[in-house]
Give the backbone structure.
Amino acid sequence: MLTPAPCDIRPGSRSCSLWYPAGRLGHRERSFEWIANQIQLLIDNDGFPEPLALYDTAQRKVDRITPKSRWNVDAVDAWFDGTVPAHLTEAHQSRLVSMHAAQLDANAAALSGASA
């Protein structure tokens, strides 16, 4: 079982771990698996923001919540506060995925010696 970090938001970062929304839900004492399942249900059914794009070492997008998953703090707070319509959160997530994919492509090109 993962132990929640005392501070889920890294200094200078606007992303958070799974433990931040778990705390807002009042479930920090639960196991990682239980919390991940609850958050996935909120994503699937209630418009909760998806985690930021995460890719494995083979550059495949990870399609599940993992201990390394991170969320945009502003999107999480907006969902809890009810201030952002779901379609805007989805548009923001789509832009983030595109941005991260472009950065991965550039990194791969730099590693292979090709020009980006």
